[in-house]
Design brief:
By secondary structure, this protein is an alpha+beta fold. The protein is built from three helices and eight strands; from the N terminus they run H-E-E-E-E-E-E-E-E-H-H. It has helices at 2-22, 133-140, 144-212, and strands spanning 27-32, 36-43, 48-55, 70-75, 81-88, 90-96, 101-108, 117-126. It has a four-stranded antiparallel sheet, with no helix packed on it. Strand 4 (70-75) and strand 5 form a beta hairpin. The longest helix is centred in the last third of the chain and has 69 residues, at 144-212. The chain starts with a helix and ends with a helix.
């Protein structure tokens, strides 16, 4: 029985480790000089997020060419700037989201002739994945099993918060749909009233015209 429980616990821990590792994979994309590419991430309010980016050096072992510098800006859906770096080869940022919504990180490469193609590696983590578990283990002096259980606990809390956040967003969307349907109903009624009024005026005008011409 003890062996079975230990095996089940290791299985759960392995699943959580796999889940956490999947959420921390790096994104690699190409960016041509003179162009901008933006990446969006939906982040909850008060959630921590960290990002790390770097331009891949096409000539390994040599300094990064001047054509391979990028300007990076991270902003919220309300336009608030959380990070800005101009003409850099690498960098990182970390902040706690003040408001919920879509956050965007935009990369811009200055124009060059001939056109240069840059390869950018970007790693963006939010929530549980953004925590530095190595420092947590060192500061807390906890063993591997306790560390993985803490990860599991924080992951469950993160999922619960995500579900509550999605429920709030769903209620907001339903309220918006109800308000939109109400406005559309009033607009349809008003349009019908205007059409009937115009039709009545046209009938009255034609009747008056025919009476003046003594056709009726």
């Amino acid at each position: 029985m003890a062996i079975h429980r230990a095996g089940s616990l290791h299985s759960v821990i392995f699943t959580i480790i796999t889940l956490l590792s999947c959420t921390s994979e790096s994104l690699r994309f190409e960016l041509q000089s003179g162009q901008t590419k933006c990446i969006a991430e939906d982040i909850k309010s008060n959630a921590m997020t960290v990002g790390k980016y770097s331009v891949i050096n096409p000539n390994e072992g040599q300094p990064l060419p001047a054509t391979h510098a990028v300007t990076v800006r991270a902003t919220s859906s309300y336009g608030n700037s959380y990070h800005y770096a101009e003409l850099v080869g690498s960098g990182q940022f970390a902040f706690t989201a003040a408001e919920a919504g879509d956050y965007m990180t935009c990369f811009w490469a200055p124009d060059h002739k001939p056109v240069a193609t840059l390869t950018v590696e970007f790693d963006w983590k939010t929530g549980v994945a953004a925590k530095d578990w190595t420092n947590v283990a060192k500061k807390g002096s906890i063993d591997v099993m306790e560390l993985e259980l803490k990860k599991l606990h924080d992951t469950v809390i993160s999922i619960q918060e995500e579900m509550l956040y999605l429920r709030e967003r769903e209620e907001e969307m339903q309220e918006l749909n109800r308000a939109t349907n109400s406005r559309m109903g009033w607009l349809s009624f008003l349009s019908l009233l205007v059409c009937l009024s115009v039709a009545g005026m046209q009938v009255w005008h034609l009747k008056t015209f025919f009476e003046k011409k003594k056709l009726i």
